[in-house]
Amino acid sequence: MALTPRLELRQSQTLVMTPQLQKAIKLLQYSNIELREFIEEELADNPLLKLNDEDLSTESGMAEEHGASAMSDNVDPEYSEAPEYTDGTASLDPHGQEHVSEDHVNVLDMAEYGDVWEQEDVPSTATNDIASFSERGSESRIGTDYDGRYLEQTLSQKTSLRDHLMNQIQMEIHSPKDKIIAVFLTDHLDECGRLPNDLEGLAEHLGCDLHKMHQVLNRLQQLDPPGIFARSLKECWSIQLREIDRLDPAMETLLENIDLLKVHDYQMLAELCCVDFDDIEDMVSELWSLTHNPLDAFDQIVAQTVTPDVTMRPGLEGSWIVELNTTELPKVLVNNTYYAQISGKMRNKNDKKYVTDKLQWANWLVKSLHQRATTILKVASEIVSQQESFFELGVEHLKPLALRDIAEEIEMHESTVSRVTTNKYIDTPRGIFELKYFFTTAISSSNGGDYYSSEAVRHKIKTLIGEERPGSILSDDKLVELLNNDGVDIARRTVAKYREALKIPSSVHRRRLRNRSTAFTLTY
């Protein structure tokens, strides 16, 4: 068969991440603080955008008094906004059914989302952004962010105290009920990292058993920094001494009689602790070496105020009303009057194109912000519907919940629900909670069967390491292999993370400890 040049016509379908979709995904996963920063940048860059502060304050007052819409129609005629997807509220009847406008569709789950400009052209600035991203290819992901800047050149963000504790809670506490209690107690810490003495009142407010709250508190007091979650100075010191294995009976007696330190009655303290005078002086010196405020050692930790994105309140006949927090919902409008004024006076082709691109991008941004608000409200309303027993009866009635449960009910993709519930908070009668804390973590099965809970996987890792032989220490890679053989689909970094959360040393350190133990036995 001879090789000859020829023309062929082929037709194929491919999925393309349009610049609009990429921006929409980023908008959806932004926290309210990040969203405001993003909008401030857009306002500075786009002269056709305006932040409607007056409507925000007006709507906030209406929501308090009448439960009115967060997306009011009371807009100046010279500005335009996107079509109404939702009125900013959703009510749930006693059976948990949501009443919200069905005119909107989650565009993030639609293939047609890329055609949001309909007959208009895609702004050239957006096209250039995606083109440059494609040209950089996969190599641009190594050591750089998506804007092409090296990660070393970007400013690092200080970790807040809440984030520092939440990261540990996520790793150390696996039960959804216990996690809710842990988050609740975290939100009641004062500036010294202590809790109020009225633990009974906190348990009653959350609707949980006092014994269960004590159990969770004992686990929280093992977190970093040592002394956190104490209810008094004495308990703060006790936690720190236990951390360094110095809480012996004599030291416990000293803490129980700490009032004698105020009058410097060391002789009485020595008699009570059954030690001599020199020992009691050493014990007191060790006590004074401890910190009064566990947060003093964390210069990098900054305070962070959590502002809810969604609020809920009781409605009529046992229903719940779920509303967007309008004070944290930036409302951006398109200034069509200004566009009409400047576009008619422009003669330069490039200037006209610039203004047209800015108008198209402004219209798209306004629509996307409405869609973001709609999606958050829809997901939050379904969570309230699923966890209605928790809000009414307390944490003991928290229902096991997975992302796919919410996704199936509201007909969205799990990834969309995941983005919505991250860094989004809801203000409930029982406190402020992050939406993601109503879900349980699960590990997929390698054979396509049921999911494994993260707690079950941790238990498997702990059991495997506990049964390892001195001459055959299991590395993280070997643990991954054994878990995969058991049907658990897990990555090496996840195994390492779970092992560290269990406070189990690496295979190298465990091998050294085994060798030292063997050498000591032979010497002895």
Would you tell me the overall average pLDDT? Answer: 74
End-to-end span in angstroms? Answer: 84 Å
Number of helices: 21
The radius of gyration is 29 Å
Q: For the largest beta sheet, what order do the strands appear in spatially?
A: 4-3-6-5-8-9
Give a quick account of the main beta sheet: strands, pairing sense, barrel closure: 6 strands, mixed
The portion of residues assigned to helices is 40-55%
The secondary structure category is alpha+beta
What multimeric state do the chains show?
single chain
SS strand fraction:
5-15%
| Morphology call | globular
Tally of DSSP β-strands: 11
Number of domains: 3
Spans where pLDDT lies below 50 across 5 or more residues: 55-87, 94-156, 520-524
Describe the structure.
With 524 residues, the chain is α+β, with helices and mostly antiparallel strands. It folds into three domains: 235 residues, no CATH class; 137 residues, RNA polymerase sigma-54 factor, core-binding domain (Arc Repressor Mutant, subunit A); 78 residues, Orthogonal Bundle (Arc Repressor Mutant, subunit A). It is built from 21 helices and eleven strands. The strands form three sheets. A six-stranded mixed beta sheet has the order 4-3-6-5-8-9. A three-stranded antiparallel beta sheet has the order 1-7-2. A two-stranded antiparallel sheet has the order 10-11. Strand 8 and strand 9 form a beta hairpin. Helix 5 packs antiparallel against helix 6 and helix 19 packs across helix 20. The protein is globular. It starts with 18 loop residues before the first helix and ends with a helix.
